[in-house]
Structures are given as structure tokens and as C-alpha cells.
Amino acid sequence: MAPLTQETNPAPAELNGVGPDVAGQLLVTAGDNPDRLRSEAAFAMPCGVAPLPASSGRTHRHRLNRGGDRAANAALYRIVLCRLHWDQHTKQYMERQTREGLSKKEIIRCLKRFVARAIYHVLTTTNATAAAPSHLATAA
């Protein structure tokens, strides 16, 4: 899996908490057409991390979209777990949000959206500046 993800797009694997299997899944979710990823929200929707309002009465909160690619959602969850275990900034974020009264589930929801945003930027900037894939270069 590692050689395939490095050949396709090595940038996601360079992020903290992203291994070859997770990078491969996110590349599959992004698809072969990077133009369909118009915005961060357009990438978050198929990953299942787009926030949807789930408010009732005086409670104002969000939940994650239950639709989308479950494997991509699981990949983002694995990234968040790795970052919670190893990344000092993520640990500090968790402590700060816990002090503010958010539950662990809500904090993970926010972190998954943050990771999806970072992955989107990596995918779109590297795809926009990368050369054409070899199968397209031979067709010309």
C-alpha cells in the first residue's frame, strides 16, 4: 500500500498520524477527479464529518453527518486517536475543550473536522501543482 500511495500522492502520508493505509483510504475517497472537491465542506461530506445542526430547545449543538464513506470516517478517527496519543498540540486542545465543558465525543467530532480540513488542503494543493499522472501523459 505504501508504494501506491507514495506514487499517487505522497503529501497526505507526511501529515501527523497518517499512515499508508489511512492515506490510501482518503485518496480513494477524494477520487480521481480533484475538481469535484470544490471546498472543505465538499470533502467533509463524503467523509461523514460535515457538521449538521442537532439542536433542541435551548441546546445548540452539532452532530456529524451519518452519511458518506464509513471507511473514510474511520480513517479520520484513526488519525484523531493517533494525534490524541502522540501530538502535544492535540492533547492541549483536548484539555482546553474539556475545561470548557465539551464531552470527549464532541471534541473528537471537532478534531475530525479539523483533520478533514487539513487533508483537503493537502490534497488540493498537491493535486493542483502536481504533474499529470502517467496514464494521462501517455494518451497525449
What does this structure look like?
The chain is mostly helical and 140 residues long. It has one domain (16-53, 62-129). The chain is built from 7 helices and 2 strands. It has helices at residues 2-8, 20-30, 40-47, 70-86, 88-99, 104-129, 134-137, and strands at residues 51-53, 62-64. Strands 1-2 form a two-stranded antiparallel ribbon. α4 crosses α6 (104-129). The radius of gyration is 17 Å and the shape is globular. The two termini are 28 Å apart. Residues 128-140 have low confidence and may be disordered. GO terms for molecular function: DNA binding; transposase activity. One of its GO terms (biological process) is DNA transposition. Residues 14-94 form the Transposase IS116/IS110/IS902 C-terminal domain. This is Transposase IS116/IS110/IS902 C-terminal domain-containing protein. It comes from Streptomyces echinoruber.
Q: How do the strands and helices of this protein lay out in sequence?
A:
Layout: H1 2-8, H2 20-30, H3 40-47, E1 51-53, E2 62-64, H4 70-86, H5 88-99, H6 104-129, H7 134-137
Task: Report a brief summary of the structure.
The protein has 140 residues and is mostly helical. 61% of the residues lie in helices and 4% in strands.
- Counting DSSP H or I runs of 4 or more residues, the number of helices is 7
**How many strands, which pairing sense, and closed or not: the largest β-sheet?**
2 strands, antiparallel
Regions with little confidence, pLDDT below 50 for 5+ residues: 128-140
Q: Output mean pLDDT.
A: 81
Count of β-strands: 2
Tell the overall outline: globular
Question: What Rg is obtained from the alpha carbons, in whole angstroms?
Answer: 17 Å
Helical content class: 55-70%
Structural class: mainly alpha
Q: Order of strands across the widest beta sheet?
A: 1-2
